[in-house]
Amino acid sequence: MPQAEYLRRIRFWLAVFASGLVLSGVTAFRLERETGWIVLLLRQSALQALAQSTGLLAWMERVNEGIRATNAHYPFLGYGTDWLAFAHIVIALAFIGPYIHPLRNKWLIDFGLIACGAVIPLALIAGPIREIPFVWRLIDCSFGVLGAMPLLRCKWLIAEVEYLYNRRIRSLLFDPAVGDFDPCYEKW
């Protein structure tokens, strides 16, 4: 595969990951409105029977009521979710580094994978303390798993580029017919 194709694929998967972070961040700004929409959707759609039988409707009504009551009496607590949203967006911006130069900034891929892995113990430990239903904790864990998928693909592609680059350097250094190392291969 040509170098440009590796770069295109790495950038695609990084864009998928960063877009997920930005989307998660942006949706944290308007929680009261968004949970209200979800409650309306679950009450007025074909999903109502399923939502009631699984407890999803009751849970979403409780969440929406909690957010409304908090915003009405203690609106300053919403500032915490504003910072949560901001943090998601800033973390997404950090992935501009590997988007521009994946090999030089591959450590950020590892950082992202560690963060995705840390979602699981956080959800499983803090969830029961905060009275989050078990099924919802599993949904939270799935964000870590789903976030890791594009990053694992990037890590694999970067490792393949490094392997090919190192193989090319070895062939240049140890093949007397080739001669001296050509610095044009530095673009890898």
Protein traits:
elongated, 188 residues
Written overview of the protein:
By secondary structure, the protein is an all-alpha fold. It has one domain (3-167). It has eight helices and no strands. The chain has helices spanning 3-27, 31-43, 48-54, 56-73, 78-94, 96-100, 107-129, 134-174. Helix 1 runs antiparallel to helix 5 (78-94) and helix 1 (3-27) runs antiparallel to helix 8. The longest helix is centred in the last third of the chain and has 41 residues, at 134-174. The protein is elongated, with a radius of gyration of 23 Å. 14% of the residues are buried. The model is unreliable at 179-188 (pLDDT under 50).
How widely separated are the two ends? 13 Å
Count of strand segments: 0
Say what oligomer this is.
single chain
**Nearest-integer average pLDDT:** 90
Q: How much is the radius of gyration in Å? A: 23 Å
Alpha plus pi helix count: 8
Relative helix content: over 70%
Question: Which segments are poorly predicted (pLDDT under 50) over 5 or more consecutive residues?
Answer: 179-188
Largest sheet: none
Q: Tally the structural domains.
A: 1
User: What letter string, H or E per element, gives the SSE order?
Assistant: HHHHHHHH
Apparent shape: elongated
Strand portion: under 5%
Task: Indicate the structural class.
Answer: mainly alpha
